[in-house]
Design a protein that fits this description.
Elements lengths: L3 E3 L5 E3 L2 H18 L5 E3 L5 E4 L1 H7 L3 H4 L13 H13 L6
Antiparallel strand pairs: 1-2, 3-4
Length: about 100
């Protein structure tokens, strides 16, 4: 059984590590699904795991269409080589983000 601690604002915060992870996961999912901005999660093979409706609308694809494409399929041809190099650097650990 996990114990929660009541915060000043009346919300409950879990005290266990598992409870905190579940809480963070719930917060992320709630933010992801609010569709304030387009968000997606991709795999290392450049295919999509998840995408919210806003992301799909921005690109003009339903998720079923999107999940069979890599992000390189959606990249302008002039940018593909640069994007591939940056992605390889990210995977190699040379950079943290791009």
């Amino acid at each position: 059984m996990t114990k929660d601690v009541e915060q000043k604002d009346g919300s409950l915060e879990p005290t266990s590590a598992t409870g905190k992870m579940i809480s963070l996961d719930c917060k992320f999912k709630r933010f992801f699904n609010q569709e304030l901005l387009g968000m997606a999660i991709m795999r290392q093979d450049m295919t999509w795991c998840e995408a919210n409706d806003k992301f799909c609308a921005i690109l003009g694809y339903g998720f079923d269409e999107l999940k069979v494409k890599s992000w390189l399929d959606l990249t302008h041809p002039d940018d593909i080589e640069r994007e591939k190099k940056m992605y390889e650097r990210l995977l190699a650990g040379d950079i943290d983000k791009y």
